[in-house]
Write a structure and sequence with these properties.
It contains eight helices and three strands; from the N terminus they run H-H-H-H-E-E-H-E-H-H-H. Strands 1-2-3 form a three-stranded mixed β-sheet, covered by helices on one side. A hairpin with a 4-residue loop joins strand 1 (102-107) and strand 2 (112-121). The protein is of the alpha+beta class. The chain has two domains: 3-40, no CATH class; 82-171.
Length: 177
């Protein structure tokens, strides 16, 4: 933003005013960007350097090798996983990760529950952190099973080898419709 544009037009001809306002515009823009950056770091979804503080507050180990998105997923999962464990809490924790919708089936006789990924094919890219989040909130006596969706041979049968050849094995299992 150029501050001279906020002044009456008769100031626009003055070299002194233009020079002064130009230098003030640089400072103004720097301060505005600093404030915007600070505000962005107050919210998990837009934080960058502020993720360190969220992780510290929640007792999570900071791992700079992870992407901002992976770190945000861990933070959101940790925040959602407080309180008495319920199916809703487990679903909410799962939704903190970019893995789509999950269905939860309780298996009482086996002291377990199943998390079935129902809206996206393949495994979540941040699977280790996903498992850690579930391990942290589930009751210790319960086991769990993860069930993923993949393309089946039956679904791919109409495709020719020529149509599938440009894709990797993983893409064939997870991406092709």
């Amino acid at each position: 933003m150029n501050l001279i544009d906020m002044l009456p037009s008769f100031y626009h001809d003055s070299d002194f005013v233009k020079s002064y306002m130009s230098s003030q515009s640089v400072e103004h823009n720097f301060i505005k960007e600093s404030i915007d950056d600070l505000v962005n770091n107050l919210y998990v979804d837009t934080a960058t350097w502020g993720l360190d503080y969220f992780e510290e507050e929640l007792g999570l180990k900071t791992d700079k090798a992870k992407t901002y998105e992976e770190r945000r997923e861990r933070i959101k999962a940790k925040k959602r996983g407080n309180g008495t464990t319920t199916i809703k809490m487990i679903k909410d924790t799962a939704l903190a990760f970019d893995c789509g919708e999950v269905e939860i089936t309780e298996m009482y006789n086996d002291y377990a529950f199943k998390l079935k990924f129902v809206s996206e094919k393949g495994r979540p890219k941040n699977l280790d952190d996903f498992k850690n989040a579930i391990d942290e909130i589930k009751p210790a006596h319960l086991a769990y099973i993860l069930e993923f969706m993949f393309n089946t041979h039956q679904q791919l049968k109409p495709k020719t080898h020529q149509e599938l050849s440009p894709f990797t094995h993983q893409e064939i299992r997870e991406v092709i419709e």
